[in-house]
Recover the amino acids of this structure.
C-alpha cells in the first residue's frame, strides 16, 4: 500500500502503476470501474459496502472523499493499494479538500480502467441534479440512495424529474426479494386482480416504487398504507374479487404467503446490507427499464425510458447561495397521492409530501444548454469532457443506519 500526502493526480497515477508492477501483474481482468462518492463521516461504511461488492465483481475501486469544500487551500491525500484492506483488486481512496473537491473528475478521469464501463455510486444524499456532478456525467450507470436524504419521498420525486436511462436507486434494489416472491406467487393464479394494498412504515420510497411497479404491470389501483414506526415494507395484499393473495413479513428473515383456499407457506425474505444491494446493481450494466417504468408510473411522468441517455455537465457551485432554482412541475400520479396522504396525517419530523420539490431542483425536460458535453455510450469505453479536462478511451458491509430497508 502506498500513502501519498498533499499530492497531485499525476502522482496518484504513478503510484497505481507502481503498485501494479509490485503485485506482479501487468494487467488485471477488470470488469468495470466503481467510483464511490462519500463524505468523511461515512467513509468506513462506504468502504465496507464497496469492498463486498468488489469481491463479487472485479473492478477498480475509486473512492472520492469530499471534505472541507470551504477550505481556501485545495489538497489531495491518497491511499493506493492492490490486494489490501479494500479487497483483492485495485483500490484508490482520495481525500479532497477545498475547491479541488468540486473538480474531482480532474483526478478521477486518468484513473478509470481502460475500455471498461463506469458505475458511480453516491453513498450520501444524492445530488439534486446528476448533471451538477461530473462524476455522474461520465458514468454508464449511476446509483443513488434516496433514503440518505432528509425527505426520501421528495428526493425520489426529484430522481424522477432528473431521470435518464442508466439511473437507478438502492430503494428499488431493496424490492427485489419482494418482487420475486410476488411474481412467483402469481404463477399459480389465473384470476385477474382487482386492487392491491402495500403496508409499510412512513415515508418509505421502496413502498412507493413497489406501488408504481404493481400498477404498471397489473393496471390496477394500488394504495400504500403507512403504519408503525419502522420504515420497512411489512405486507402486500392483492385482491381478486372474493379472494386475496397476501405476503407478509414474519420476522427479519422470513415471510408468509397466504392465499384464500390454500395453506400458508413460509419462505425466506432476508434483509440485505448496502454491500449486497450494490453488488446486485453491478451485475447489470445496461439500462434498468423496469425501474424507469415503476418510477414513471409512481411520479406520473411518462416515457422516462425514452429520454436521452446523454448528459451535459452543468457547473454548479454549492457554496454560491444565489444559484437556488425551483421547479414548477406539479406532483401527479402516485406522487400526488403520497403528498396528499402526508399532508393529511403525517407528523414525522422533517418529512414532506412526495410530490414536493426540494430547493435547487429543476425539471430536466431534455439536455441542458452547456458547452461541456459528455456522452454515455452503450458497451464500450466512456468518453467525457468536463471542466476543460478530456479523456478518450476510458470507461468504466455495513448497512447505513438511516437507510430504510424493504
Amino acid at each position: 500500500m502506498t500513502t501519498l500526502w498533499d499530492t497531485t493526480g499525476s502522482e496518484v497515477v504513478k503510484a497505481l502503476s507502481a503498485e501494479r508492477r509490485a503485485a506482479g501483474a501487468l494487467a488485471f481482468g477488470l470488469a468495470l470501474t466503481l467510483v464511490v462518492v462519500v463524505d468523511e463521516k461515512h467513509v468506513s461504511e462506504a468502504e465496507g459496502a464497496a469492498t463486498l461488492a468488489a469481491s463479487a465483481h472485479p473492478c477498480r475501486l475509486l473512492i472520492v472523499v469530499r471534505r472541507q469544500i470551504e477550505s481556501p487551500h485545495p489538497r489531495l491525500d491518497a491511499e493506493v493499494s492492490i490486494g489490501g484492506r479494500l479487497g483483492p483488486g485495485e483500490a484508490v481512496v482520495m481525500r479532497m479538500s477545498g475547491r479541488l473537491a468540486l473538480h474531482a473528475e480532474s483526478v478521477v478521469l486518468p484513473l478509470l480502467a481502460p475500455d471498461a464501463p463506469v458505475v458511480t455510486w453516491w453513498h450520501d444524499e444524492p445530488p439534486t441534479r446528476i448533471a451538477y456532478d461530473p462524476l455522474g456525467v461520465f458514468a454508464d450507470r449511476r446509483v443513488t440512495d434516496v433514503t440518505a436524504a432528509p425527505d426520501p419521498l421528495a428526493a425520489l420525486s426529484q430522481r424522477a424529474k432528473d431521470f435518464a436511462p442508466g439511473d437507478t436507486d438502492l430503494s428499488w434494489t431493496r424490492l427485489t426479494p419482494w418482487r420475486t416472491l410476488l411474481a412467483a406467487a402469481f404463477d399459480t393464479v389465473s384470476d385477474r386482480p382487482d386492487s392491491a394494498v402495500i403496508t409499510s412504515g412512513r415515508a418509505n420510497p421502496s413502498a412507493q416504487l413497489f406501488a408504481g411497479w404493481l400498477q404498471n404491470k397489473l393496471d390496477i389501483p394500488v394504495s400504500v398504507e403507512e403504519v408503525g414506526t419502522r420504515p420497512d415494507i411489512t405486507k402486500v395484499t392483492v385482491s381478486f374479487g372474493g379472494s386475496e393473495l397476501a405476503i407478509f413479513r414474519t420476522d427479519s428473515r422470513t415471510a408468509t404467503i397466504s392465499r384464500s383456499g390454500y395453506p400458508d407457506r413460509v419462505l425466506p425474505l432476508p434483509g440485505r446490507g448496502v454491500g449486497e444491494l450494490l453488488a446486485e446493481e453491478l451485475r447489470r450494466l445496461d439500462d434498468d427499464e423496469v425501474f424507469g417504468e415503476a418510477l414513471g408510473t409512481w411520479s406520473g411522468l411518462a416515457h422516462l425510458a425514452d429520454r436521452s441517455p446523454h448528459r451535459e455537465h452543468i457547473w454548479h457551485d454549492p457554496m454560491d447561495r444565489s444559484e437556488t432554482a425551483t421547479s414548477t412541475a406539479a406532483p401527479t400520479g402516485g406522487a400526488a397521492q403520497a403528498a396528499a396522504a402526508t399532508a393529511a396525517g403525517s407528523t414525522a419530523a422533517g418529512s414532506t409530501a412526495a410530490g414536493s420539490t426540494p430547493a435547487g431542483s429543476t425539471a430536466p425536460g431534455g439536455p441542458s444548454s452547456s458547452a461541456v458535453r459528455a456522452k454515455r455510450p452503450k458497451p464500450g469505453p466512456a468518453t467525457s469532457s468536463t471542466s476543460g479536462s478530456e479523456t478518450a478511451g476510458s470507461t468504466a458491509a455495513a448497512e447505513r443506519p438511516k437507510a430504510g430497508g424493504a
Summary: The chain is about 25% helix and 25% strand.
